[in-house]
Amino acid sequence: MLTSRGWWLLMLALLITGLGLVIPKSWPHPTALLGFTILGWFLVEWFLFRLRLIALRAQLAIHRTIRDGKRPVPSCWAGGIYEVRVGLRYTGRLRIPYVHIEDLPPMRCELLGGSTTEVGRLDAAEELTIGYRIKTPTPGEIRFEGVELCVADLQGFFMERLFLRRTQVLPVLPPLVDAGGQPRTNKRRNRLLPPGVHRLRAAGSGSELLDLRDYRPGDPPKMIAWKPSARKDKIITKEFENEVPIRCTLFVDVAQGTRVGVAGQGPLTRLSAIAAGVVQAAAAARDLTGVVLFDEHGTRVIDPSRGSQHVVSLIRLLGDAAKLQPSRADPDDAEILARLAMPIAERVYPDLIDDEVNHLPWTSFWRPVLDTTHGPFVVFLACTPLLLLWKPWRDFLRASADLLFRSSESALTLLLSASVPAFLGLLVWLWVGMQGMLNPLQSRRARRKKLATLFTLLHKLPVGAIEQLIEDDAAFALEAQRFLADHHAPYPLALYDLHGRYRFRSEAKVERLAQALTRAIGKAHDNELFVLMVDLFDLDEKQLEPLLKAVRVAKARHHQVIVLVPWQKDIPEPKDDTLDPSPLPPKEVGPQAEKLWLSFLRRQLIHRYHGSWLHVRRIVGKLGVSILCAKEGESVRLILNRMARIRRSGVHYR
Amino acid sequence: MSREQPNSVRDEGVLSYYAIGFAGLAVYLLASLEKGNIMASLVALLVGVAGLTAGWRISPGLFLLLTALGMLDPNNSVLLHAITGESNQPRRLREFQPTMNIGASFALADMLQGLAVLAYLVAQYRLFGLLHQSMPSSRIVRRERRRDYLEPTKTRPARLVTRAESAAVLGTSLGVILLAQLASILLFRAVIALNASTSFIAQQRFYLLAWVLTVLLVGIVWLLTAVVLNRLSWGVMDASAARIYLLNQVWLDSQREQRRQQVWRKWYRAKRPRQEETSS
Could you report the predicted ipTM of this complex, rounded to two decimals? Predict the structure, then answer.
């Protein structure tokens, strides 16, 4: 709270007061008066500052609205531009002469204009407002944390940062795609018909003329074909073809593997955007679309249907999926994650990590010697005087003392000889224990404890979790990842383990996908389109077998299947179907070759990725199924083309 | 992203503090002339003027020290000795003469000088806030030593300066100096009253008593204020802060037992892979 400027003045005031009390030869002396004056002024300013802080904490309210044009919105569209307005209303009587406020804009947003900060005074008469414009580039969600207030006195002796948490989370729905370029076509023939229905060239409410027939009472007059009626001299009615929609089911992989990547630019975000595009385009063509979200643990199925409510629910579902973050904690990452989480905690939760409410007693910083590898040896050394009870040891010490000091009989010499290792042991014990009270161990432990308590509160964990999070690196890393993901902060993830295996490879999700596909085939009414948006990297043919079996069944039932594989954004696509030879490691070693090694690692990663892609493409391609990289615009177009092809297909059902 | 423009020295708010600062220095000079300690006062004045015009950060501190030096050593023997190596006064044992007369304690020149110093300090620090920096940079930025990232310097906009501020500065300064004078006299009366004999006061004993009473006075005032303010701030604590406080207390109460359990769990986790290896 006290700034360096305040500290300096306080020290000077104390010094002058002290000198005024000690040095002068006449009493009272003006120096003491000057010291008292400065001290008194400092006390008055401190008192007023604290009083203002208390009033501010009690009587400040903020409200935030996000507007699209003139109306406030409860959710956003990806790519949309919105105006944010934040107002601070203070109702206290004590006026705050100087505050600096800043609204933290969401992490995934692009700031287009306006200002996120404002400086002013707070009183009951006027309201401080902030206004700025943001663009929401990717689907998922945006999170407004709250407003940071920096309050200072006019001299700059005291300063306090407060954070008014008003968390507001808005879903960002996948963008609305333009389906105008996709001509609406009608399905003429069916390959697979429902039992009892042999042709779909039945009369219906389509737009293509099917037949002309005699007028029957009750036929709508607008269906009367006037020219044939005039020719035949009797009333003829037009009959139109039945319009059969296409059913399309999108299987979206939301497993850990697709969540990896830069927030908002990862494979899952792209898959969600593609799926949302298909859903909207299909809805515009009055087709039925369903979505199946699957991961390692289960599936969530929304059966194909149509209607605006269905489309909105699908888009919401995909928006929720797009915000998922990977959570695969490695105990070794605990310290890095703590370092990443602490600045966020300091900024957003300053009152919850303050020493006043969340502190660690100094005794907790003592580092137990038994926690170290040489601990038992140190304890043994410290306890060596007890060995005096053992006669052989006494004899050995006597002999040693006789050899060294030529006086084996003295009890003091004996005791001193026995105490030397104990003294050394105690010294090491003290040194090890004191290390915990010095940096970096001290700050590391304090940070860990504060974060552990904060996570326990925020994630609603039981009280015992505090100590568990302090001691258990894996549990702490998991909670820290959750905290960072909740606040949309990026965090590092190791993609490969020590054995070079891809850590996000999942066989369980292949099983889940196969089950979901089989279920969808079982419920299919017609020849349908199944789009599998799934990450299949680093899976071999044996692991893919359940999925391949389900795809074979789908093909046998004359369904169309497309496989879309999400592609990491920063990895280039392979130029052709041949794999380049594996890159050779550089011969140079040492810090000067760091760039060469980084380049080698990158090339190797790309080589491995391409190899895995070609492998999957070969396996899936054997079944006659299209497999493609998930590129946003092109993928939507491809799926819609495939749906159009089903409509236009001229194959008759036998 | 801030849309606030930096202040100029021509802004009304800035000019008003310049006026207070220079007026304070002028009164300071007159009071010093009245008291006769000119040399140190002139040096202090120069430092003060440099602080106001050039924005020297060390000016207020240096000004205070020079003023105190001038008060403690009105004949400038220390200053002259530092400059020329000679003193204008022969070194002799100091006489110790506590003043008993309260009327003599209320020296107008001393009070005016104190008032002037306070007015200058207030103006100087507020000008720093208006023209240079009103709040320190973020703790996170400082700790991480991120030199690549320059946090924008926060200055108080001149439009926030009101006319009432100047009056408040003078009012507060007057009030503070009167209180300080009162405290000073009260303290010395108390010291003298506590001494058994007024005819001979032991110098050491006097110092000790003065110190003890000063510390007691300042300490009690500070303690009482802090207690009242803490009580008030606990009253406005929000629910999450109260919850984390309780969590922390529970953890403190059962920390040793919990830690023991966790150490055993850690030991088991470390041992399990080895057991699995040996069993396989």
Answer: 0.84
